[in-house]
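Hi all, long-time lurker, first post. I run a small reading group and we've been trying to get comfortable going from sequence to structure in the token notation. Rather than ask abstract questions, I figured I'd post a concrete chain and ask someone more experienced to write out its structure so we can walk through it together at our next meeting. Sequence below, copied exactly:
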Amino acid sequence: MEESRPSVGMIGSGSWATAMLKMLGDNTSSKELLWWIRKEEDLAYVRQYKHNPTYLSAVELKVNPENLYQSARTVIQKSDIVILNTPSAYLEVALQDVEAADFEDKIIVSAIKGIVPGDNLIVGEYLQRNYQIPLENIVVVGGPCHAEEVSLEKLSYLTLAAKNNDNALRVAAVLQNRYIKTVTTSDVFGVEYGAVLKNIYALAGGICHGLGYGDNFQAVLVSNAIREMEKFVFAIDAEESRDINASAYLGDLLVTAYSQFSRNRTFGNMIGKGYTVQSAQLEMNMVAEGYYASACIQNIIQQYGLDMPICDTVYQILYNKQSAASEVVKLTEKLS
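-- Answer (accepted) --
Happy to help. Here is the structure in token form:
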């Protein structure tokens, strides 16, 4: 890797990928940006107009038209730093033509806040198992950071988690700019699982809002949620020291639970109002990671024998088709 000016490749073309491309474009530390766009018509549009026609369409993207590809493998091969930024459910398809050798000697960044459904693995574990990528080469991006606010250049903070702090600092160097600040941590598993869990808790908050519960109850729900999160991440990785009140955990939970831009809260609100899962997904036309995460996390909760009533409530509503109203009433008796 060219130490001072690495090339950066983006795999994904949703709102978060688009926002991160804006961050990268507003930073002069990379020698070039490369972008994998799945749909041919979207690629042609970006090449001509330098805007994503589907997500954050007002954002002008500073990407050379010659560095746009429909081949994820090409982008990965040409990049020093690779940012994976698809919905977790689509990662396997995005990488279907990619081989383990294509990732060698590169920093691999996961900006995916979800679990790969078929494998029931967080992205870092999925990459280690399927592509033999050393944990030291993986950097995880944590929030709190909504794509919509990044597009408006509102001050935001990213947490970069890596076992190799030099790699975290290299990624920070290409992402930070006048409206993006960065911090680093070694808590890879805590940050990645925290990002998964906060989506489930935002879904719970949305369900309760859709049912008519107010701000007083939402505050109780979120305070219980952060304690659940702490219990879970310490069960997964007890050796790592972490402050659960740090931005990557509590901060990301708060913004996802309360923000108008939170698709998981929006999805949950629709469920609380009586939408089916399928109808809510169709109307949103965006992926709510918390839906897929709920089933995956439930398996892990059972594996470790953890008592996590909020996660269990969301799972019962989404997957066992239990009444949202009755399940939340039962949940209220378990909160404090």
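A couple of things your group might point at:
The chain has a mean pLDDT of 94.
The beta strands are 7-11, 32-36, 68-69, 81-84, 107-110, 115-116, 121-122, 138-142, 156-161, 180-185.
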